[in-house]
Amino acid sequence: MDLGISGKRALVCAASKGLGYACAQALARAGVHLVIVARNEPPLQAAAGHLRSLGPVSVEAVAADITTPEGRADALAAAARLPGGARGEFDILVTNAGGPPAGDFRDWDDAAWHRALDANMLTPIALMRETLDGMMSRGWGRICNITSTAVKAPSPYLGLSNGARSGLTGFVAGLARQVAGSGVTINNLLPGTFDTDRLRSNLAAGAAQAAMELEAYIAKRLDAIPARRFGHAEEFGAACAFLCSRQAAYITAQNLLIDGGAYPGTL
Length: 267
Hints:
Blueprint: E1 9-13, H1 18-29, E2 33-38, H2 41-52, E3 59-63, H3 69-77, E4 92-95, H4 110-138, E5 141-146, H5 159-179, E6 184-191, H6 197-210, H7 214-223, H8 233-243, E7 255-258
Parallel strand pairs: 1-2, 1-4, 2-3, 4-5, 5-6, 6-7
């Protein structure tokens, strides 16, 4: 299906691997020019090379910490190096950041909360502040925030993520409705358990904590997913690309859960 976004310009955060890369890959295949951001330059440059091989799209790689003002400034400036672009002039914004650590809320000091809020709430808001008015003035824009299933099914061990991501979700609920009439949509993607490097690391840590063999621990995790498998990153990227498409123009202020049926609720 032609998504109608060929030639658009996108900023994709945490895009060197995992779900961020999958989103960038799906957008590149749709003909979107990209600025991709991640902290570690070698895997980021490797990702940029793969994306350039997918078609005639421009890909700018910015090795920076997007949670800092300096990192955001570098990412926004890179838009000027895309075809027809200018500083901060993106048609599509995909925000993404690794989740904060699990634990007991009694052990988290103010600094831990500030780090979680900076990464998972305040940075996406700052990027929206920098890009949204331009989208509105041009009459078209797509913003997708990668959040977490914790927004709908909070984990008692993921309080930092529960709080920060729920704060972003509440903010987006109001903002998306303010700008819907300008041709700009804002939605959140809520990933369940996807087969990524981060998952494999978490599975090993979880098995050790539970004093279980890794294979038995993985089987237990899979048993809780009606689809009986972990998600593929490409499936997540395809959902992101669709929300950025011309066809998704009437979808906004939504939280799309992609978890193989693991969430047990109706709504």
